[in-house]
Specification:
Length: 122
């Protein structure tokens, strides 16, 4: 899907694939998947791998930012990988998408933490 973005100089045609709906937003699904894999791997290994999740988040954020910037879309800084929910909120605002991925990320994170915490023998 091509979209038009208004810039200071007028309307610009954009080749960056802005998702038509939340189900097509592959980058948001990747952010959710990274978090799920990190929490499950951490529970299996019995260590907190949260800091290691920052690396794949930064890689994906940089890829997305590079694609979007070619078409004049200013994505949030990849430094927000340290606070992924803030990044997701900003990103969804820029893309004018519903906040479903933000709430899914929060819900799945809290749910997995509760479930994995309850399953922990300690």
């Amino acid at each position: 899907m091509e979209a038009e973005v208004k810039s200071g100089t007028g309307v610009v045609n954009v080749n960056y694939k802005i998702p038509a709906n939340w189900k097509e937003d592959k980058y948001s699904w990747i952010y959710l998947g990274v978090m799920v894999l990190t929490l499950i791997a951490g529970a299996i290994m019995k260590v907190n791998l949260g800091i290691f999740a920052v690396i794949p988040y930064i890689v994906v954020m940089r890829m997305e930012k590079k694609l979007a910037s070619k078409d004049g879309i200013n994505m949030p800084s990849e430094w927000w990988a340290l606070l992924v929910p803030v990044y997701l909120w900003q990103r969804l605002t820029i893309l004018k998408q519903p906040r479903i991925h933000f709430w899914l990320w929060i819900g799945v994170t809290v749910g997995l933490c509760v479930i994995l915490g309850a399953l922990s023998p300690e």
